[in-house]
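INPUT
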Amino acid sequence: MSDFTLDKVARNISEWLRGEGPMHEIVISSRIRLARNVAGRRFLSRADADEREHIAEVAATAVRKAPRLSGYMQIDVAALDELHRRLLVERRLISRQHAEASGARRVAFAVDETSAVMINEEDHLRIQVIRSGFRLDEAWDEINRIDDELEDQLEFAFHPQYGYLTACPTNVGTGLRVSVMLHLPALRLTSELDKVVEAAKELRLAIRGLYGEGSDATGDFFQISNQITLGRSESEIIDDFRDQVIPRIVDFERAARQALIDRRAIALDDKIFRAIGALKTARLMSSNEALQCLSHVRMGLHTGRLQSIDLTTLNELLLHTQPAHLQVLSEGRSLNGQERSELRAAMIRRRLGVSEN
Amino acid sequence: MSDFTLDKVARNISEWLRGEGPMHEIVISSRIRLARNVAGRRFLSRADADEREHIAEVAATAVRKAPRLSGYMQIDVAALDELHRRLLVERRLISRQHAEASGARRVAFAVDETSAVMINEEDHLRIQVIRSGFRLDEAWDEINRIDDELEDQLEFAFHPQYGYLTACPTNVGTGLRVSVMLHLPALRLTSELDKVVEAAKELRLAIRGLYGEGSDATGDFFQISNQITLGRSESEIIDDFRDQVIPRIVDFERAARQALIDRRAIALDDKIFRAIGALKTARLMSSNEALQCLSHVRMGLHTGRLQSIDLTTLNELLLHTQPAHLQVLSEGRSLNGQERSELRAAMIRRRLGVSEN
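OUTPUT
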């Protein structure tokens, strides 16, 4: 697949940013991934270049043969330039680690981006299914089917006592990670986020920013994931997220939003309207500032304080103002920070229908 | 005079903020003041309450009898509440020290606020004449006439060798202080302001903020004054300001503005349009932020980058968003910080013609 095709992909909105599904005013997306390794092959940390290449071929062939996956786009990540690798990270089709690694590695994904298989990330295969809104069951059903079809093509490393074997011990067992992306602007504004973080720690959950490990929680977007898979069944983990963890945080954020409306409406509106003001007037804007402003505008839309922007435009901007998307969509090449800030601000004003001066 | 009359005064724009006169795009106002003391009376630092009261009466009578000053409003500063004393400070009709002092003290000022006489500030009389723009000669001519007329009514403390005697030695001689208020946003943005401050120090000039001693240079407004009067004639001091000091700084600011336009137009526009964006959208705004935003908008107007606001509205907002003006003009009473921020933001949006969401 050529970069040109990827450039077309960049224009679409990612599944995870559609802003649909249950509780979508707070739950951005529900993601499940499975870690799998081909039986009889070394883990990648111990594989040489040839074996790595061979595993990539074997896995890619399995993806092509699996009926549900046969229409997937397959991309040779190792052959992409840095800009397009980062583009895939921003779309959450590959991890940052996968983008920055070296050696044979690929990604295959459904055209609608609801599912993807990373080949030769930490494990031989990392299967993910993502849905906008709070739809873990749907994601779970789909990933099970994909897993079954791939298992028809490949024998996975499995131990009768421990379960699926993975490169990192934390994934051994089910190889399952459940990640729910939440938008928690009110909890941040009311300084109650620490309570969520504390509670998550006690439940042995990980809280990360928009782009996984090592990324900040910019713009009030938080990814909550399970950390341990060993000794718990898939359904225990998912039930826990669906019935306990996420509904509690969602209720907490809802209460915080209501408290802001009831008791600090002016301060709330100040954040929301300043954000739209900055987006409409800035001539230079960093991606972090854009994300923060768009976060406040999103809160404005979902609390009914703001009507002057539609959700689709907002979601598009959340993605298209990210550095790689911005560069691919504007000039199609790498730009320096100043150029990016200028083009980002211009793109935002254009999309918001601002007539210049 | 009642507070009600002062409340009407508050609605007008001060002379110094008219935005007229030579070099008004950079020189906000030209001010000259003379320090005078009644001969045969103690300086105020040594006067008891009775003598202080007596001096106030004598000076007030002289003001009433002087033909040019006979129509002045006379206000008993000691009888004013704090809010209205601060109102006079914001209009630069009295000093902060005069507002915060205790004991008998007054102010008399022309209805158009181009001249004022503080009675019992540091000296028995402090005469000031102020003009918008760069008009030192005009101010000097007028203050000379006022000084002469007052001297017809009062004998001033004068020493044949030292000149006019004043409470503080730095004013002995001419008792003259020349203060020019400058708007230097480009020098601040280009970080060249330090050079101006250094040069001013070498020339033994004082640089202060908008409201004199102890105030910050908020919103890029700077007051430049002579520090020493002894040993120099009035005309030497004024010639120096008119022909050397101020034209040089004005040229420096002009060059900085042109450099921004030529080489950093986007960054310049970013400041200007973000400022107008914040003014139009904020729901809470401190006086410092308002001043900073209005400063950038003023630069936008005078560099031709922005046309969507008129200078009169801008100048009114510069004054009316100050804390005392805001409180007098909105509720007519003291408000807490949160209330002020809210009313200030609402006033600004209203004056800028923003239709509420």
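end of record. Chain A has a mean pLDDT of 92.
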